[in-house]
Amino acid sequence: MTQQTSLPLAAGQLPTVGLGLWKIDRAQTAATVVDAIATGYRHLDSAADYGNEAEAGAGIRQALERGLCRREELWVTSKLWNTFHRPEHVRAACEKSLADLGLDYLDLYLIHFPIALKYVDFATRYPPEWFHDPDADHPAMQIDPVPLHVTWAAMETLVDADLVRNIGVCNYSSALLHDLMAYSRIKPSMLQIESHPYLTQERLLRLAANYNLPVTAFSPLGALSYVPLNMAETSESVLEQNVVKQAAVRTGRTPAQVVLRWGIQRGTAIIPKTSKPERLRENLALFDFSLTEAEMQAISALNSNRRYNDPAVFCELAFNTFYPIYD
Questions:
Q1: Of these residues, 41, 50, 109, 126, which one is catalytic?
Q2: pTM, two decimal places
Q3: What is the average pLDDT across 129-149?
Q4: Which of 80, 135, 241, 259 has the least C-beta neighbours within 10 A?
Q5: Residues 2, 40, 213, 273: is their CA dihedral positive or negative?
Q6: Does residue 119 carry a catalytic annotation?
Q7: Domains and CATH numbers, the chain
Q8: Mean pLDDT over residues 67-95, rounded?
Q9: What would the DSSP string read from start to end of 4-49?
Q10: Sorting pLDDT into bands at 50, 70 and 90, what band is 84?
Q11: Which residue has the higher pLDDT, 109 or 225?
Q12: How far is CA 87 from the centre of its chain?
C-alpha cells in the first residue's frame, strides 16, 4: 500500500489523497471503489447529489468482505444536499446516505452548498438535484429561506447522535466562515472548496489556517472535470502549462502528478476523480517526490481566479435561476 499522509480533524485523521466519486458512472462505481481500496485508497468523498451512494456502498461492502481493509481504516465523507437544509430534514438526509452507503456512521458530513432549496421528498425524486419540478413548463430552482445557522445546529445534533464523527462545509466564502465560527457550538472540522493552480484561493486558505480548519481541494486538476459538462474548454488544461511540464520532466512524473503534488504540498487534501485503474495508482503515487519552492511558486503564479464550479454561472445557464454565492 502506498504510504499516505493525513490531516488531523476533530475526530480522526483524514487521508490526504481521496477518491472523489462525483461523475463516476453508477455502473462503474462499485468496481471503482473496490479497485481504489485495493490500490491503497482509504478516503472516499461522496455526496447524495452524486447519485451513486448505493453503488459506492456496494463497493465498500465488497472490499470489507474481501478483507481489503477494516471499516475503521476507511474515511468516508458525504454531503447534505440543498433541499434538506431545514432542521427537520437534516437527520433523515444523513440517515439516507448512511443506508445507501451501508454504514453506521460517517467520518465527515458536509453542507454541500450554502444554498437552501425547497424540500423534495425522497419518494418524489432522489437525488433531488436543482430543479424543484423538472417537468414544469418553466423549471427553475425554488429557494427556501433557511438561515445557515439553523442548518448548522441540526448538523451538530448528528455528532451528538454518533451518526457522524465530524461536520464541515463546502463552498463557503471567508465571510460565511467568520459567521460560522461565531455561532457554532461544534466547530467545523473541514472546509472543502474548489482549488487548483488557476484558482489558488490563497486568502481563504490563510483564513482557514488561522481558524485551524483543514481544507480539502476538489477539482484539483482544474478544467478536466468540467470539459465534459461544457463548463470548460480543453485548451484550459493546466497540464499543458510549461511550468508543469518542466517539473514533470525534472521529477520523472506525469503533469497530473505534478499538479496533484502541488495541491498536497501546499497543505490541502485532494480528491481527484477517476475510474481508470492506472489513474488510481498514478493519483496516489505522490509521496516519494516533491516540488522545489521555485516550482511551487511558479505553479501558484498560474492563478487567474478561474472558478469552474460557480453557481452564478451554472445555475443561470442550466437551471434558469441566477444565484451567485461569490462576489
A1: 50
A2: 0.97
A3: 97
A4: 135
A5: positive
A6: no
A7: 6-319 (3.20.20.100)
A8: 98
A9: --EEE-SSSEEESB-EE-TT--HHHHHHHHHHHHHHT--EEE--GG
A10: very high
A11: 109
A12: 23
